[in-house]
Amino acid sequence: MSRLPPPPTEPSPQEGPPFPLLAVLAPLAGAVLIGAITGSPYVLVFAALSPVIAVASMLDGRRTARRRAREGAVRFEEECGAYTRLVEEAHRAERAQRDALAPARPTEAAPLESGSVRVGVARAPSDRAPEGGLVHVGGSRSGAHARQREALLARASWHPALPVLVPRGAIAVRGGGPAARAMAARLRLEPGVTVLDVRDDHPADAGGDAAARALRPDVELEVHTASTMTVRIAGQAPIPARPEFWSAPERERRRRAIEAQSARLPDHVPWSSLEPAGESSSGIPIGCSEAGQSVIDPIGQGPHILIGGTTGSGKSEFLRTLVLGWAHRASPAELSLLFVDFKGGASFPDLAELPHALDVITDLDESTAVRAITSLRAEIQRRERWLRDRGARDIRDPGASLGRLVIIIDEYAALLAALPELHATIIDLSARGRSLGIHLVLCTQHPGSAVRDAIAANCAIRVSFRIADNADAGMLGAGLAHRLRALPPGRALVTDAEGTRELQSALIAPEDVEAVRERWRDSPDAARLWQPPLPTVVTPRDVTRESVDDVAKTGWAFGVADQPERLRRTRAVWLPERDGALAIVGAPGSGRTGALAAIAHAAHESGSALETLSVDWVDAEATLLALRDRTPDRTLLLADDLDEVLRRCGDERAELLRLWDDVASALRRRGGAVVASLASSAQQQGLTAGRFPSTLELGTATSSSPSRVSPVPERRAPPGRARWRGAEVQIMTAPPLPAPQPPPVPDVTALGPRPCVVIARRPRWVGERLGRAHPALVLQSAEEAASLGSAVSLEPRVILDDVEGWTTRWSALQELRRTCDIILAEVGPSELRSLIGLRERPPSLHAHGGEVWLLQPEAPIVRARWHELADEAEGGPEL
């Protein structure tokens, strides 16, 4: 019980200070003594000030005391008002709890203990009373504030109007006048109640065990029971009748009565011994009560069932009995079962073999649980559309032709602890389940704390096994916590529209499950509510079998997308006109290259041309330059490990990215697109910012529910598993990427019909190689060529010198440029610009393999291979 705090403390009395007699006499005596010593009469003037000061101090102290008293009174009044509101709220909650614990009316044939009748309200001890026991006004304390506090404490200790419930059965009304006749008439309307006529002077006529009700003409009602409990309505001194106030003999008598009633029930009830309910009834046999076989009716009295009890009390066995009984009376077309077992999956392995069963979801695979609950949201919408299209108001309409779905959750509290975001879906299912044919069966050890009011309000059937906590007993509606504590395993109190009854739950055997499975052997299994998880391998043929949105029909399908929230799968489609450039991001081993190959295959099948970027950054630059200068139509540019290519190019990264952007823009204008694969860290470097509006993330295996707040921790995803446009995708297998085809590098030779100018960083080394390759070749230096003037252009020869030599003869070089081929070997871009005067950036070269720059008259500078230097050992840094 939740106790109220102590009432406010009354303000302490504030008294003014007394007259300070010594403080007046001491200065006066001192002044007289000083005047006698000094002989000055004026000293006595100061002595006269002492009484004045003392009187002023006393008056000021009393004024301060009165102000503090007023402040304390105001504070006490405010606290008393707040405490009064707190008491009223606590009493309202207590009244609501008592009303909720009142059992429903039983049938005419119900036994005496099956329910109670409410005869009025009475003043009674409050469960919310502050610590310290019951309080009566009029104690020894005095004062208005003390009496006000005493009144608050008394008000908090006694509830003014708690319901008075008496057992049904034979009730005697004693008394005369219209009030007694009215009470007797009302009691005759109560089912399960027999009213006995008893004269005022013969109270013993009521019988030994029958309850007697005394109604006096002044409308004061005394309720007497066979246990001598008495509650006087409108009286002033009620005698407590709550269980905690029972006397020891009364407590023992009730314990024996409970044991006697329990002893009349069998300890073991085989499920096979139960008789099936009639065709006109939707009840499910679940066990035996004192009146015989007991059934519950989830369809007629539900729709939802709440089950509570401690470990080992029989909750899970009751679930199995309920499920098997329901499956016995309904075909798989009429009933589908979804098991959610958060105790490791040990409760329903055999029942999962029934044709009604959809799946068993356990705490060992939380992602599947999220997938199933996500699909249930879509199932709610599907059922709503189904009923609307057929003009049916709910599932009971003959035109609905819709099967029922039962969701059995064992250890509901553990489910919410692991996946708290699923609570909203459970609330939605509980609110709309009745009309849609969706039933919840919630089983938990602590229903008082695990099941919220929004769900419990829709659980009209409540089954209470052994429970030790009063709050849990109240949530289940049994109202007899002392009785629940003594229940043996398998024994339960069931509360539904027929009242509260105790029963022994039936137990099923393996042959019972087999018999039900055999009963529906020729019936098709229940249709699944959701698609199975994505496979780890998807072929192009699998992709073509899936549906596709009309908008994306012209795009490139590269895999299968899972959409459990819409109960379907679709093709994963990249539509460049809608999505823009695509970045495929993932860790090593996640399947980046395979995803790139799948997109390339889809683009090739649609008639688009493919261009693959080389991982060699020099060749990649050559490809980009060629695409920029001559952009083809409907071409897809693929770049595998683009971040690695950029890392290798070092200081040329910015230039290569600028070139990539130019090509991407040119391709987009001509119906093409670009796609690149990147490592996960590339996004952190800002590489994709602004360049790739769309991202395909690989290695992601979280739930596909967009509404999740606390996602399930990621598990290791298979290669090719990705996230695309909010859905989980499995990339299809495809042929390998086409090999890069960079533009060919032309060969150049020093032997030609006209002179060739060579600018080399190591002219002697180059001259030696040329001499060995061509012994008859004429080699000249820049100085010799300058002395010949214009005659040099008429003779085939090689004019070879270093950068410094040509710099001093810059005018001669410009003259030769108009008629001669110029080869630059191992020369940097800055030296090229200073010698030739080029403004555009030259193409990049490999530092090995004999690659040089070739500048021909009236032509742009190009990358070429000088075969006389091509046998140079590979390696060394790139220029």
UniProtKB/TrEMBL annotation:
One Pfam family cited in the UniProt record for this chain: FtsK_SpoIIIE
Bias (Low complexity) ranges: 700-712
Keyword annotations from UniProtKB, A to Z: ATP-binding, Membrane, Nucleotide-binding, Transmembrane, Transmembrane helix
Region feature Disordered, mapped onto this chain: 97-116, 268-289, 699-721
One function term, GO molecular function aspect: ATP binding
Coiled-coil spans in chain: none
Stretches that traverse the bilayer: 21-37, 43-61
Binding annotation for ATP: G309, T310, T311, G312, S313, G314, K315, S316
Domain FtsK: 292-474
Family annotation (InterPro entries): AAA+_ATPase (IPR003593), FtsK/SpoIIIE/SftA (IPR050206), FtsK_dom (IPR002543), P-loop_NTPase (IPR027417)
CDD domains: TrwB_TraG_TraD_VirD4
Name recorded for this polypeptide: FtsK domain-containing protein
Organism: Microcella pacifica
